[in-house]
Specification:
By secondary structure, this protein is α+β, with helices and mostly antiparallel strands. Helix content is about 20%, strand content about 40%. The chain has a 7-stranded antiparallel sheet with strand order 6-7-5-4-3-9-10. About 15% of the residues are buried.
């Protein structure tokens, strides 16, 4: 009679394909991080309302966004241009408006003032740095923000009188904020 041995895995011993599972886990984690970190470090222009959900737009250093509103006294459109330099770093580069009067900048101390003859508007170059820009939208002003040719109506999206902070941050900070 021949001795027969059971050769099923439980009796013969399981030989792991991965002799060092910890090393394989670390390798997989490293691979995921290599592909994930550039995405997590991407810059976002974030509109943060005091209540409700925020809006995030992917941006890059050098991109511009525009705040457009109707001036409350002159009842003419105003455009404020902001350049993105990096996280918590924006610069109001210039303001364009149609009328000249109460509440509108005009002083040489505020920047370089130019009267544009081709369209009759005024352009004030300012270069004012900002970490955060805050607004309280009112329906009469018809405020909106345009970035990458997409316009966000602040009153429709967040409501009248709701404080909206505009910031530039890395995507991972936006995830941690929520």
């Amino acid at each position: 009679m021949t001795k027969s041995t059971d050769r099923t895995p439980p009796s013969s011993g399981v030989r792991s394909f991965f002799r060092k599972p910890g090393i394989i886990f670390l390798f997989l984690l490293l691979c995921v991080a290599i592909f994930f970190l550039p995405y997590a470090g991407q810059l976002l222009l974030v509109l943060i309302p005091e209540k409700g959900s925020a809006v995030a737009v992917p941006v890059a250093p050098g991109d511009e966004w525009v705040y457009h509103y109707t001036h409350s006294v002159q009842l003419t459109p105003c455009y404020e241009y902001f350049r993105i330099n990096g996280p918590d770093d924006m610069v109001m580069t210039h303001t364009v408006y149609e009328s000249y009067g109460v509440g509108l900048p005009y002083s040489p101390a505020e920047g370089t003032f130019v009267s544009r003859k081709e369209d009759g508007k005024f352009d004030l170059t300012m270069n004012r740095p900002y970490r955060t820009v805050s607004f309280r939208p009112a329906i009469q002003a018809k405020p909106d923000i345009t970035c990458h040719q997409i316009t966000y109506d602040l009153c429709k999206r967040f409501g009248e009188g709701v404080r909206v902070d505009v910031k530039v941050m890395k995507r991972y900070k936006f995830w941690l904020m929520n």
